[in-house]
């Protein structure tokens, strides 16, 4: 269901814009983009129904708000969708029995907080647009959404490529050693899916190289002061190893509001 009150207008940077999807057709375009990126490009495993539809969709999509990056040089609406991020607030998650991340992590330390929380997920950008301008727009859109809905903390599963934790020993150990969330904010991977992240001696890490090799989305979270939960989770369907990221929103809104205010002044 599209909530017309969920959005914040549109932020623009040249031919690119970011806003919340305003129609079922735009949500469908986001799901089609997700399918192309996750299944065709990254090797996720589609069941027969998903492959036939050519859409990445699940039970959480109808209650979520879908942030879109649009290239207005391609047209308007559906034709313009080149990036997306799924946003789920607490009251939306309650309609479907909880958050997507709860299948991988015990979110009790976050959900026990009284203020509004936001789950981020299903982020992807068309290959031709994977650069700084698009990521700044996505984060600017998230900042505007966070401000509108008074979000205090946001979280979500971020993915490392592949399902062999030993092959990911460097990034997992680095995240656990240097960016583990404080206990009061620390989600834990659920029993039965918990994979140790401290897989090597942290003293042997080349931290600069470990940070440089992280996926851009994970680096973006860390630049905003983000933390990770304890334990990784193997997601065989999507061919990834997931970590739970937690970000307090104050730094997000401050950084990206300043960025767009500078753009307006220019």
Quick gist of this model?
By secondary structure, the chain is an alpha+beta fold. The chain contains 9 helices and 11 strands. The protein has one domain: Gcn5-related N-acetyltransferase (GNAT) (Aminopeptidase, 3-Layer(aba) Sandwich).
Structural class of the secondary structure composition?
alpha+beta
Task: Give the CATH level 1 class.
Answer: Alpha Beta
Major β-sheet, in short?
Answer: 9 strands, mixed
Shape: globular
Q: Which regions contain 5 or more consecutive residues with pLDDT less than 50?
A: none
Oligomeric state of the chains in view = single chain
Number of domains: 1
Helix share, percent: 25-40%
Radius of gyration: 18 Å
**What is the count of helical runs?**
9
Q: From the coordinates shown, what is the CATH architecture?
A: 3-Layer(aba) Sandwich
Write the CATH fold name: Aminopeptidase
Q: What proportion of the residues form beta strands (DSSP E)? A: 15-25%
Number of β-strand runs: 11
Give the SSE order as H and E letters. EEHHEEHEHEHEHEHHEEEH
Q: What name goes with the CATH superfamily? A: Gcn5-related N-acetyltransferase (GNAT)
Break the fold down into its secondary structure elements and pairings.
Blueprint: E1 11-13, E2 16-20, H1 24-41, H2 48-53, E3 65-71, E4 81-89, H3 90-94, E5 105-106, H4 108-111, E6 117-125, H5 132-149, E7 153-161, H6 169-179, E8 188-189, H7 207-212, H8 216-223, E9 227-228, E10 233-235, E11 240-248, H9 250-265
